[in-house]
Write a structure and sequence with these properties.
Layout lengths: L1 H16 L3 H7 L20 H12 L3 H13 L1 H4 L3 H17 L2 H14 L8 H12 L2
Length: about 140
């Protein structure tokens, strides 16, 4: 699982950090058949390859592809269970729709995220950023 799941994901994250979003997507091709699988030692799916691919799509301003990838988290809730990336998928979906210019869908996705995080500390950076982004939607 290391060579087809973890290693491509790490390589993609490195490429993404170097602003090479296209190379990040290419690096994740090897993980695609396994991205919805649960690594044995974790007993649940993290879906990290999907999350890194989505970040690469957002960096490339490809909102349509990013929305499709984020939807995997919502379509496969039983894999990620309560893993943090599942909750962050709502925010990511809002960002993807915003990139596409679909404000009504973006607002709905942001509101789903805010509903999930309603009891979170208000100063958590990701929540602060989400509120700021939401305020800019027109």
């Amino acid at each position: 699982m290391r060579k087809v799941y973890r290693l491509p994901t790490v390589k993609a994250a490195i490429e993404l950090d170097a602003n090479n979003s296209a190379q990040a997507v290419v690096a994740l091709e090897a993980a695609a058949p396994y991205e919805l699988a649960a690594p044995q030692q974790l007993q649940l799916g993290t879906m990290y390859p999907v999350y890194v691919r989505v970040q690469a799509q957002l960096a490339a301003h490809n909102g349509c592809a990013a929305a499709t990838e984020f939807q995997k988290f919502l379509d496969h809730r039983g894999i990620a269970l309560n893993y943090p990336l599942g909750a962050l998928a709502h925010l990511g979906l809002g960002r993807a729709y915003a990139v596409q210019g679909d404000t009504p869908k973006a607002k709905a996705a942001y509101n789903d995220f805010f509903t999930l995080w309603k009891d979170a500390h208000p100063d958590i950076p990701i929540l602060v950023a989400a509120r700021r982004e939401y305020a800019k939607l027109r």
